[in-house]
Amino acid sequence: MAHFNKSDLKRNQFMLTGKFTRKGYDWWWHSFTAVDEETGEERPFFVEFFTCNPLLARPVPTLGQLPENQKNKIRPSYLMVKAGSWGKDKRQLHRFFSWKEVKVHKKAPYSVEAADCYCSDTELRGSIHLSEGDVRKHPEWMCDDGTMEWNLKLEKKVAFNVGYGAGWLFRALKAFEMYWHAEGMKTVVSGTVKYQGRTYIVKPETSYGYSDKNWGSNFTSPWVWLSSNNLTSNVTGNKLEDSVFDIGGGCPKVFGVPLKRKLLSAFWYEGKPYEYNFSKFWTHTKTKFTFREEYQEVIWNVEQSNRKSVMKTEIHCLKKDMLFVNYESPDGKKRHNQLWNGGNGWGNVKLYKKNRKAENGLELIDDIDVKNVGCEYGEYC
């Protein structure tokens, strides 16, 4: 099986070319864990740079959810810096810039900059300050009030390169509605965050960082994402220091044709790759997944197999710790209105090798407890 952990900075560069300049989005997502400088309490954070429709630029950001823009079918155009935190006192904060204010280095290695906000493969800094009154007056901002500042260094250790589906040919053809590349499915993060009046330290050894990007003309429904690199073996009791898993997808569309209930997944297990990728048909990958909402929590169950191995994943996250993250599509529609998003999920992953001589044909490789799980699920509603 070909290794998926090959870095590819060209897939991480700015992708809004051709028809995507007028009807396209491109974002870079980062999530990580920090500790309160005074109490030592853990808190998970996220920072995202979301770009949309650069060729429709105006002197001020064009917000698609404004009633007059909805009425006149005016599509959004802006850089949106999204940041916040999950758990107690959770927040989703948005800051918008006109393309006239944005500097983009489009080729690899990429960078995006506006005012004090900056994003690249190695650095992440910026600030958002939103008053309760302003947010109440501007529902088109789709966010909460609050304050957050960040100054971070990124070291991307393990990539998830999904293969030819996001390769140069399919990118040039604009074949998919939504593309994915995880340049740093395991990312070491360091630095500081100031959030709601408190200071948090991001320590490399406990940052449990994650970095990826999506781009395209629309989103997927259902929308699935699960990832963690805080893993402990129940077989040996040891922390798995060179391991990370990443699961994403839902219903990709190729040239407008939906491929229902498809996921792309990778488990980098102590230096060995296990991949479950439907686009690599020769691996005979099969996937089953469910999502259910209970009174206090939501639960993902994913079972994947290929010719050689099986991965069974169950993740939980408390509803009170999660956000409904908000995005509008490049056409100005807001289709995801219940997109569950969390950063402190937990659960279990079992990894098996197929062995005809073993009971049920499966030989256990490891039974793993997982924490600090980034998790997401949503369907159009």
Give your account of this protein's structure.
The protein has 381 residues and is mainly β. Helices cover 4% and strands 52% of the residues. The chain has 3 helices and 25 strands. Strands 1, 2, 3, 4, 5, 6, 7, 8, 9, 10, 11 and 12 form a 12-stranded antiparallel beta sheet that branches. Strands 13, 14, 15, 18, 19, 20, 21, 22, 23, 24 and 25 form an 11-stranded antiparallel beta sheet that branches. The longest helix is centred in the middle third of the chain and has 6 residues, at 132-137. The two termini are 39 Å apart.
Task: Give a short synopsis of this structure.
With 381 residues, the protein is mainly beta. Helices cover 4% and strands 52% of the residues. Strands 1, 2, 3, 4, 5, 6, 7, 8, 9, 10, 11 and 12 form a twelve-stranded antiparallel sheet that branches. Strands 13, 14, 15, 18, 19, 20, 21, 22, 23, 24 and 25 form an eleven-stranded antiparallel sheet that branches. It has a two-stranded antiparallel sheet with strand order 16-17.
Could you spell the SSE succession in H and E letters? EEHEEEEEEHEHEEEEEEEEEEEEEEEE
Total E-strand runs: 25
Uncertain residue ranges: none
Oligomer classification: single chain
Beta percentage is over 45%
Overall radius of gyration: 20 Å
Overall geometric form? globular
Structure classification:
mainly beta
Mean pLDDT: 93
Helix content: under 10%
